[in-house]
Design goal:
about 250 residues, Rossmann fold, 8 helices, globular, binds NADP nicotinamide-adenine-dinucleotide phosphate
Length: about 250
């Protein structure tokens, strides 16, 4: 599906995949609304897009996805300054590696608040507006960590599994309202999020390569965008194995 440049709203645009994706859309002439909590990083994004002479404008709109008031205020600002987005990329995410000894209720609540409720808050805050357009696209950035339960990822993995389920569940109803749902499931990508990991990360991709795959995948309009294929298809295969075999393999990830 080829789209003429329009307005794209990206959450989690102050760093990593969101930052790179914002630059990519700006380079293609889109008006990019870039959201996150750190205003200085969003302003650095605006400056970088400007210094690279990109055609599209980048509008920074600060928001905390865990806060109703902040999200509603940001949505009001977006509608006033850029209008209803054509594409909404719900990418803001939180991850802390966590073993059973370190895990706490607090850790779970924060992970779910950003990764699940934060997405739902932004999505449903904008949904009535999106329904007014003939066509729009909502991109949920989940993870291959949501395919099945893996060691040391109880909170993060289950929050991302919730997003996969959410995307599958919304797919048909949203389509009937002209909203195309896209689910992005990256493998490991080198960003500040994965810099916290001390274990070897198979098939880790550069943020530039991952953003390219993500951008092209979103443009294609297909339901799932996942990369790098060699790694993500191995994980897809893992989840269909019978449990004795599945656990025999995943025990090695400890
Ligand atoms: N890197 C990977 O290997 C990988 C793999 C699979 C999936 N993912 C997913 O891809 C997405 C982007 O990850 P990344 O690797 O680019 O991570 P990152 O560099 O840590 O970026 C995370 C972004 O989320 C924003 N964010 C966090 N909490 C927020 C909050 N309460 N309100 C608003 N924004 C918030 C951060 O901005 P502020 O701190 O400025 O608010 C930042 O812009 C995440 O959903 C992540 O789970 C990443």
């Amino acid at each position: 599906m080829t789209q003429a440049p329009g307005v794209v709203w990206i959450t989690g645009a102050s760093s990593g995949l969101g930052f790179e994706l914002a630059l990519r859309y700006a380079s293609d002439g889109y008006t990019v609304v870039a959201s996150a909590r750190r205003k200085d990083k969003l302003l650095a994004l605006v400056a970088q897009a400007r210094s690279q002479g990109f055609n599209g404008k980048v509008l920074p709109v600060v928001l905390d996805v865990t806060n109703d008031e902040s999200v509603n205020k940001a949505i009001g600002e977006i509608l006033n300054t850029a209008g209803i987005p054509d594409i909404v990329v719900l990418n803001a995410g939180y991850y802390e590696p966590c073993s059973l000894e370190e895990i706490s209720l607090q850790h779970f609540l924060l992970t779910y608040e950003v990764n699940v409720h934060g997405v739902v808050r932004c999505l449903f805050g904008m949904l009535d507006e999106l329904k007014q357009k003939d066509q729009s696209q909502v991109v949920l950035v989940s993870s291959v960590a949501g395919y099945s339960g893996l060691p040391r990822a109880a909170a993060y993995g289950s929050s991302k599994a919730a997003l996969i389920h959410l995307a599958e569940s919304l797919r048909h109803e949203c389509k009937a309202s002209g909203i195309n749902i896209t689910l992005v499931n990256p493998g490991f990508v080198k960003t500040p999020l994965t810099d916290k990991n001390e274990f070897p990360m198979p098939f880790i991709m550069s943020v530039e390569k991952a953003t390219d795959a993500m951008y092209k995948g979103i443009q294609s309009g297909r339901f799932e965008v996942t990369f790098p294929k060699r790694f993500t298809w191995m994980l897809k295969f893992l989840r269909i194995l019978p449990y004795p075999l599945y656990f025999a393999i995943t025990r090695k990830f400890l």
